[in-house]
Specification:
The complex is a heterodimer. Chain A contains 9 helices and no strands. By secondary structure, chain A is mainly α. Helix content of chain B is about 20%, strand content about 20%. The chains are: A mainly alpha, B alpha+beta.
Chain lengths: ~280, ~100
């Protein structure tokens, strides 16, 4: 069977299957801190971008893509900065496309499958509320790059939170179907929120160095803000069980690998490809 | 019979910068004014088009009938005396 495609010879793309070995960043706490935030923004953006062409209405399609692009912009600055901190001469693209799954440091929450629209709303709500607090803390960072980004990103996160909270209330107070979906999405996402607030050495080091806030210090304000929205939506706050996700330690759910396959496919199949 | 679940239409007006007036830039569907405003921000101001947004329900706008165009507007075509073009302006007045 003949397959249509490019003729052999000149113009045939070079398939460099193993031209570039996966790269592994260092383990310095400051680098890990920036990678966690950058990867969380990147993978959240990638999942959100899956809504492009699938959102319930055109206007919301554009809104979700806008949010994804805001997050991607934040991820670019963070990964570029991580590359500098890493000092191996890589750049943002190398970090995004040439690391393997176990070297990604995103929260597990953002890699979970796209789910339904309520899942997107809930995930955006939980994350943007958390990110808003992170950016607020980072405005005073001793790291000028992080402080500069925080001043811009906090406005974006504030809008993302407004957008998500608005939808959560509309779904919660909408039909029986929309309220049930919102409640179910909250139940699905809630176990993964603990990871945002788990104290560890990387967070402690960041706080001591004046780099940025610890997740564990952000919990009370986050809970208050989320509870207000959930209350307004007429839904009950879920209860946290014993499960703890470990994405920011590099131990991920089965879903991240598939996401990376799609996200990294092009640059890995055609290294150095540009348009 | 199924209920009409199409969201109502809203007209969007954007002010490009302080001091200018709001200009009509398009329309969108939304369930209420608050949502229309929020969606207008995403649909119409992504490229720094504005600093202020108005939305109005399309149903609230009463428009002239295109069929009446000749009756409404053509009679003004030959009334040059309605334009203030017969005054001599002082040289120091620009851009009037």
């Amino acid at each position: 069977m003949s397959t249509p495609g490019r003729p052999e010879g000149e113009g045939t793309p070079v398939h460099a299957t193993v031209q570039q070995a996966p790269l592994r960043p260092g383990t310095a706490p400051a680098l890990q801190y920036v990678l966690r935030l950058g990867d969380t923004c990147l993978i959240h953006a990638q999942r959100l971008a899956e809504w492009c062409g699938r959102a319930p209405v055109l206007e919301e399609d554009i809104a979700l893509a806008n949010i994804a692009l805001d997050l991607l912009g934040q991820a670019r600055v963070l990964l570029s900065h991580a590359a500098v901190l890493d000092g191996q001469g890589h750049d943002e693209d190398a970090l995004a496309f040439w690391r393997d799954e176990h070297d990604f440091r995103n929260l597990t929450l953002v890699e979970l499958p796209r789910g339904d629209f309520a899942d997107a709303v809930v995930r955006n709500l939980l994350l943007s509320t958390w990110l808003k607090a992170i950016w607020a803390g980072l405005k005073a960072s001793a790291d000028a790059t992080l402080a500069g980004l925080a001043h811009k990103a906090i406005k974006e996160a504030a809008y993302h939170q407004r957008h998500a909270a608005d939808w959560a209330v509309r779904l919660g107070r909408g039909t029986a179907e929309s309220a049930a979906r919102l409640a179910a999405a909250l139940q699905r996402a809630w176990p993964y929120t603990a990871e945002m607030f788990t104290a560890d050495a990387v967070d402690d080091a960041a706080q001591q160095a004046g780099l940025g806030p610890r997740g564990c210090d952000l919990l009370p304000a986050w809970l208050d803000e989320i509870a207000a929205v959930i209350d307004d939506a007429g839904t009950a706050m879920p209860v946290l069980g014993a499960f703890r996700s470990t994405g920011r330690l590099g131990r991920h759910s089965e879903h991240l690998g598939r996401l990376l396959c799609e996200m990294q496919h092009l640059p890995r199949s055609h290294p150095g490809a540009v348009w | 019979m199924t209920a009409d679940t199409t969201w109502p239409l809203w007209e969007v007006f954007i002010r490009a910068k302080a001091g200018l007036d709001h200009k009509h830039c398009g329309s969108l569907h939304a369930v209420d004014a608050a949502m229309a405003l929020r969606l207008a921000r995403d649909v119409y101001t992504r490229r720094q088009e504005g600093v202020s947004i108005w939305v109005a329900a399309s149903a609230d706008i009463t428009a002239s009938d295109p069929g009446d165009k000749a009756m409404h507007f053509d009679p003004a075509a030959d009334k040059v005396y309605r334009h203030p073009t017969f005054y001599v302006l002082p040289g120091s007045v620009d851009h009037l």
